[in-house]
Specification:
heterodimer, A: mainly beta, 0% helix, globular, B: mainly beta, 11 strands, 61% strand
Chain lengths: 117, 114
């Protein structure tokens, strides 16, 4: 149980294009989904918290107009990197929690490696 | 500022050895401490600890939380090459803004040599 999928697993794009990453909870309803970014040899940094049916809450320093998050259903959240630039190249990981509390276990997707040329 | 610090950052041992990984934290409104194992992709859940002094065990892995010392340890006995990974410690807390989130440590890279 508690499987989270992400699509695509990797993407290479040109600078200036937009990229959409999907995060799905496959066998449970995710009240809250979290989006993280991980640069090489660094830990996971929380970008935003996404609750179904409401606007995402972004961490300090994360541009909400650049990283658009939509949590349209209890099993799907999407992250769109708009006008991507090389410095946005990173490993993007989502996690899902069934109750919305960070004290509950967060189950992670397999991640999406984004490379912007 | 909320922070989670892990040590050591890197550890290389031989198969069969026992290792202890450390995690200390300073966060507002602590709720839980979680351990994850990260191999090539995203982290996989190992343990969640909320109470001091109660050891959680799964096979050769065990972990315990000390809320007085604001720390936790993860023990792995009789290590195997498949234990090679980055071990992440994360603390769940309520931020000053009232949001519920995890703060991750920088991870311990464990390498088990045959």
């Amino acid at each position: 149980g508690a499987v989270v999928s992400q699509h695509p697993s990797w993407v290479i794009c040109k600078s200036g294009t937009s990229v959409k990453i999907e995060c799905r909870s496959l066998d449970f309803q995710a009240t809250t989904m979290f989006w993280y970014r991980q640069f090489p040899k660094q830990s996971l940094m929380l970008m935003a918290t996404s609750n179904e049916g409401s606007k995402a809450t972004y961490e300090q320093g994360v541009e909400k107009d650049k990283f658009l998050i939509n949590h349209a259903s209890l099993t799907l959240s999407t992250l769109t990197v708009t006008s991507a630039h090389p410095e946005d190249s990173s490993f993007y990981i989502c996690s899902a929690s069934s109750s919305g509390h960070s004290t509950d276990t967060q189950y992670f997707g397999p991640g999406t490696r984004l490379t912007v040329l | 500022e909320d922070k989670v610090v892990q040590s050591p950052l890197s550890l290389v041992v031989h198969e069969g050895d026992t290792v202890t990984l450390n995690c200390s934290y300073e966060v507002t409104n602590f709720r839980s401490l979680l351990w994850y194992k990260q191999e090539k992709k995203a982290p996989t859940f190992l343990f969640m600890l909320t109470s001091s002094g109660i050891e959680k065990k799964s096979g050769r892995l065990s972990s315990i939380l000390d809320k007085k010392e604001l720390s936790s340890i993860l023990n792995i006995t009789a290590t195997q090459t498949g234990d090679s990974a980055i071990y992440l410690c994360a603390v769940g807390h309520i931020s000053i803004q009232g949001a519920q989130k995890l703060v991750f440590g920088q991870g311990t890279r464990l390498t088990i040599n045959p």
